[in-house]
Amino acid sequence: PGDSRAHLATYNALIVYHALRGEGAEVIRVVEAARQAFPQNESLPFLHAELVAEVQGDGARGQAIANEAIEEVRTFSGLASLAWVSALAGDHDRARQLAGALLSEPEAIPATVARRAMLTIAYLQAAAGDYAGAEEIVDGVIEHAPGLDPAVDKAILLMLLGDSDAAEEILIDIATANPAEVASRALLAAMHS
């Protein structure tokens, strides 16, 4: 019941949280649950297979799965998901290429896809040590696409930057102001588990 996009956002937030902590088995568990909850999502099967290969240390297999996904996934949303997955799997060149391609014609893609591509770029900036650049991108996304998801994304970025206290403060504010929102609560629970 409820908004399926909100529930998918919860799964995405948990995937990112566990990926940032290097908890590959937890990432796979969350992706498996997301696949069961959203069987129509075209990118989740590739995400699951690629992450399993990465966790098992089979980078060549993960790369082959990523290549197949690019050939098979045809929606903007699916390609944005693949960019994000590539970033989390450590294939930053592929992630940058996919996100850059999506952002090359911003008027042709939905705002939610543009936001996800921008957040992928922010993650890549942070992974490269450019935390100020990453935070600037996330702040720009929050300013131009206000809502719950960007604020959750800001909390995730703060976790990446090592500022768990500030991240927790944002998540508590979201959970307090929006009783029906679940992504912030799931992240708070994961932080305290």
Report on the structure:
- By secondary structure, the chain is mostly helical.
- The protein is 77% helix and 0% strand.
- The chain is built from eleven helices and no strands.
Quickly list its features.
globular; mainly alpha; 193 residues; 11 helices
Please give the largest β-sheet: none
SS content category: mainly alpha
- Rg over CA atoms, rounded to whole Å, is 16 Å
What is the overall silhouette? globular
Number of strands: 0
Strand content: under 5%
Number of helices: 11
Distance between the termini: 26 Å
The succession of helices and strands, N to C, reads HHHHHHHHHHH
Low-confidence stretches: none
* Helix residue percentage: over 70%
Mean pLDDT: 76
Question: What is the topological layout?
Answer:
Blueprint: H1 4-20, H2 24-37, H3 44-55, H4 59-72, H5 76-88, H6 92-103, H7 111-127, H8 131-144, H9 148-160, H10 164-177, H11 183-191
Helix pairs in contact: 1-2, 1-9, 1-11, 2-3, 3-4, 5-6, 5-7, 6-7, 7-8, 7-9, 8-9, 9-10, 10-11
